[in-house]
Design a protein that fits this description.
The chain has 122 residues and is α/β, with parallel strands linked by helices. The chain contains 4 helices and 5 strands. Helix 2 packs across helix 3.
Length: 122
């Protein structure tokens, strides 16, 4: 999975994007790089854009591991945009695991809905 992120400190948000095949090693590398980035603040919100993901190759155990990783603080809003059924299902699994440890995660089918939710006060 090629992936990229951009940190916008003025808006206090991390904009993550993935495309191609979403795989275990790639998603781990993405969050490892993000956590090590000196511009990253774990209190920031996150928008994860999965609109260009064409296939998913993630194990259920890895989904649980990634979701429970403490990269973002509990309560930091994280929105996943997942228009396809496969990406939506994976994002919903991530949402359930993240919420079990205090994460504030929602999954959306379209970008405008995700952006509106992120911009609302918690």
């Amino acid at each position: 999975m090629p992936a990229a992120y951009r940190i916008d400190p003025e808006r206090a948000i991390v904009l993550s994007r993935a495309w191609g095949t979403l795989g275990d090693a790639d998603i781990t590398a993405h969050y490892t790089a993000l956590a090590a980035d000196p511009a990253f603040d774990p209190a920031y919100r996150q928008l994860v854009d999965l609109r260009e993901v064409t296939a998913v190759d993630l194990s259920a155990a890895h989904i649980a591991e990634i979701a429970k990783r403490a990269v973002f603080r509990p309560g930091a809003r994280r929105a996943y945009v997942a228009p396809t059924d496969v990406a939506f299902g994976v994002a919903r699994m991530l949402e359930a695991y993240a919420e079990s440890i205090g994460g504030d995660v929602e999954v959306f089918r379209d970008l405008p809905s995700a952006e509106r939710w992120l911009d609302q006060a918690p």
